Write a sequence for this structure.
């Protein structure tokens, strides 16, 4: 990232830089202070679509999600969430049900935000990704992709109450704040029914190693997760399963060629396919 761009925001938002920084595929993050408050400056890369995510954080208003302090079309300033403890750490410790309860609490807070369309991408639009992939005849099982495409179209056309969805709400995007609250970070930002938002959690923490991954990919464990979510949130159990199946197939085709990730997504898809 060009240092002059960094300096523009240091001056604009009157920040004091700290030593920590991180570069991702879509942005550069700088840990700073503003009026003695710890915060994170995120500067988007040219191809990034994260400006929409900042508007979603503004919509959430700090309830269940990290607080947005400032934003423009090229960067945002976020309140720092604790020391970075992720929800996945509870799962690694064998506390999966506790993690699920925390997750459901975060979901309830996010989905309680006013159901007013703030201009985010509609989940219906992902249907074109199935069509584009099917036109290429690539590696993922064609019959499975065709089935997912059909189910996705039916789900999209029959959605219930739509809300502003986080879109990537999984174990690594929920952090514990200093006051003990758990807060969501890094939303993608979509417009659609609430059940859609649960699938990201169900297919994670997918790249964890050894016993944790083996446990996660068991049908029993996955079904218990779905049932617990549906009970806690009051969401439609079968629609959660169907969205999870479709999104696992989408993840597999998006990652086609990734030797580790795509096959794991297919395993998740097969687990849910057995219940459809």
């Amino acid at each position: 990232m060009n240092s002059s761009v960094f300096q523009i925001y240091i001056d604009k938002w009157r920040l004091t830089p700290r030593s920590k920084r991180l570069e991702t595929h879509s942005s550069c993050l700088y840990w700073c202070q503003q009026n003695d408050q710890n915060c994170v400056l995120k500067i988007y890369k040219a191809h990034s679509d994260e400006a929409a995510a900042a508007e979603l954080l503004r919509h959430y208003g700090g309830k269940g999600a990290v607080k947005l302090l400032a934003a423009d079309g090229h960067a945002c300033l976020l309140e720092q969430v604790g020391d970075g403890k992720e929800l996945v750490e509870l799962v690694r410790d064998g506390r999966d049900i506790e993690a699920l309860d925390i997750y459901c609490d975060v979901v309830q807070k996010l989905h309680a935000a006013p159901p007013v369309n703030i201009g985010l991408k509609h989940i219906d639009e992902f249907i074109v990704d199935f069509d584009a992939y099917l036109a290429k005849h690539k590696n993922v099982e064609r019959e499975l992709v065709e089935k997912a495409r059909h189910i996705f179209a039916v789900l999209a056309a029959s959605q219930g109450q739509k809300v502003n969805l986080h879109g990537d709400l999984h174990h690594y995007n929920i952090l514990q704040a200093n006051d003990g609250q758990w807060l969501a970070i890094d939303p993608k930002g979509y417009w659609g029914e609430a059940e859609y938002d649960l699938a990201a959690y169900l297919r994670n923490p997918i790249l964890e190693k050894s016993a944790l991954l083996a446990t996660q990919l068991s049908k029993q464990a996955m079904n218990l997760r779905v049932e617990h979510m549906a009970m806690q949130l009051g969401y439609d159990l079968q629609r959660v399963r169907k969205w999870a199946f479709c999104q696992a197939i989408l993840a597999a085709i998006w990652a086609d060629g990734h030797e580790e990730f795509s096959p794991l997504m297919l395993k998740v898809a097969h687990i849910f396919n057995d219940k459809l």
